[in-house]
Amino acid sequence: MRPAHVFLAVLVAAVWGVNFTVIEVGLDHFPPLLFSALRFLVAALPAVFLVGPPKVAWKWIVGVGLALGVAKFGLLFIGMDVGMPGGLSSLVLQVQAVFTALFAVVLLGERPTRVRVAGMAVALAGIGVAAVDEGASGPLTGFALVVAAAACWGVSNILTRKASPPDSLNFMIWVSTVPVLPLLALSLLLEGWSADLEALRSLDWPGAGTVLYVAWGATVFGFGAWGWLLHRHPASTVAPFSLLVPVFGMTSAALFLDESITPLRWCAAALLVGGVALTSLTPGSPRGTGNSASNHDEPARVNSA
């Protein structure tokens, strides 16, 4: 990769990592489901009028929109709202690579190599260590919700793999149109119209800035730049940069939110990042000819928050 392309890949990882800190700040201004709905609304408009028509079937757009936008981000934002630290969330969420590999075995008939199985075991050990650390310092409910969010992310990765979108930015913009109404409906049902109305009435520049960052920075710029890199370099070259996301996530949370990084958390980080590297960067063995496409593209395609 050219130095400029390396810089861009690191910049995207930094934007995605810092995004968890921004989410923490945004949750001080909005109820979690409303915040997630606003994220996708701002990401979709006006970009949906600029990227052209969808380039994959609507069933894939709707499927990924529900799995990624409603389930994954809804659970993530609620988990962080009830106490899951942003830096730890950026780390734990990377277990999506393990869920993706497991779902690929069950749904796509892939046969994982021994190295990939070992990677999944190491990553799950990291999750166990992280759970012990979080259980000693905070409620496990948020932790469980973020793990569930990672599982939903794994489902969306499988759907994205089946869709094989030729243009990742076009795909993500159209996917962003799907979660807006379901998330708004859930927010009105679970968070109440009065809480939503109060958040919108008291909207200030910091609150608006968090929405713009998670929508235009993490979503539009992040996916656009990542897709641009994937069109110019093999996924195996681009994907390793995604492992920097929790590094930037934990560092920014420590710097700006005073989130402590305990020895147990460092141990969990080493196990998770190492296990995810083995899991996501090692191709599995497809059962049939139709299952091998984009086998290890996915961790590079979808790796933001």
Automatic annotation (TrEMBL):
<feature type="transmembrane region" description="Helical">
    <location>
        <begin position="210"/>
        <end position="230"/>
    </location>
</feature>
<dbReference type="InterPro" id="IPR050638">
    <property type="entry name" value="AA-Vitamin_Transporters"/>
</dbReference>
<keyword id="KW-0472">Membrane</keyword>
<feature type="transmembrane region" description="Helical">
    <location>
        <begin position="237"/>
        <end position="257"/>
    </location>
</feature>
<protein>
    <submittedName>
        <fullName>O-acetylserine/cysteine efflux transporter</fullName>
    </submittedName>
</protein>
<feature type="compositionally biased region" description="Basic and acidic residues">
    <location>
        <begin position="295"/>
        <end position="305"/>
    </location>
</feature>
<dbReference type="InterPro" id="IPR037185">
    <property type="entry name" value="EmrE-like"/>
</dbReference>
<feature type="domain" description="EamA">
    <location>
        <begin position="141"/>
        <end position="280"/>
    </location>
</feature>
<feature type="compositionally biased region" description="Polar residues">
    <location>
        <begin position="284"/>
        <end position="294"/>
    </location>
</feature>
<feature type="transmembrane region" description="Helical">
    <location>
        <begin position="60"/>
        <end position="80"/>
    </location>
</feature>
<feature type="domain" description="EamA">
    <location>
        <begin position="6"/>
        <end position="129"/>
    </location>
</feature>
<dbReference type="Pfam" id="PF00892">
    <property type="entry name" value="EamA"/>
</dbReference>
<feature type="transmembrane region" description="Helical">
    <location>
        <begin position="115"/>
        <end position="132"/>
    </location>
</feature>
<dbReference type="InterPro" id="IPR000620">
    <property type="entry name" value="EamA_dom"/>
</dbReference>
<keyword id="KW-1133">Transmembrane helix</keyword>
<feature type="transmembrane region" description="Helical">
    <location>
        <begin position="138"/>
        <end position="159"/>
    </location>
</feature>
<comment type="similarity">
    <text>Belongs to the EamA transporter family.</text>
</comment>
<feature type="transmembrane region" description="Helical">
    <location>
        <begin position="86"/>
        <end position="108"/>
    </location>
</feature>
<feature type="transmembrane region" description="Helical">
    <location>
        <begin position="171"/>
        <end position="190"/>
    </location>
</feature>
<feature type="transmembrane region" description="Helical">
    <location>
        <begin position="33"/>
        <end position="53"/>
    </location>
</feature>
<feature type="transmembrane region" description="Helical">
    <location>
        <begin position="263"/>
        <end position="281"/>
    </location>
</feature>
<feature type="region of interest" description="Disordered">
    <location>
        <begin position="284"/>
        <end position="305"/>
    </location>
</feature>
<keyword id="KW-0812">Transmembrane</keyword>
